[in-house]
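Appendix C reproduces, verbatim, an entry submitted by the partner laboratory led by Prof. M.T., so that reviewers can inspect both the input and the predicted structure.
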Amino acid sequence: MSRLTPRTPWTPLSDAAWAALQPFLPALSPQGRRTADPRARLDAIFHLAHQRGAPWKSLAEHHGKPDTVSRFFRRLTHAGVWHALLRALAKAPPDHPLRALEYAICRACRRAARLGGLALLVLIRRLGLRSALDAPPWLLPDPLLSETLLRLPLGPRTPPEAIRSLLHLARATAGRRRIPRSVRLSWS
């Protein structure tokens, strides 16, 4: 079942929310150094994620350097943190502390869409968290539909109308090459 997460205003991470997030965070950065203050960096990521289409450089000074926060965000994405958080959200009961962060996590996943690749898109679609999609579903690639199309038995007697319909569906599975920024910003 697909659903949109209701919007919530940004608030700093509570102690309960931070405790729920900590098991998903990698302990060390790739160079082996500890991250100075991961809670503050996650706060900055979630704060920026709540602002539609805001660039990293618009981050307030008290959140730290934009380059540092964006680098931390990329490392989390490449480490699979957003994938793991989405899976945990899907399994979490309604009163779990992660549920209070659902909107923020979905918005952060939107920013991670390009870095997370098709695996993140497939996961979002399978879990039905439409709020985590970067654009309306009909404009994005649909890997599940392509898998279904591959399993269809086609033979020499397949009518031309059916083949034309299948070609149209195959083009739809690839999604649009370019999604206008206006559509991305209006998609909630």
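The chain has nine helices and no strands. Additional entries are available on request from the coordinating office.
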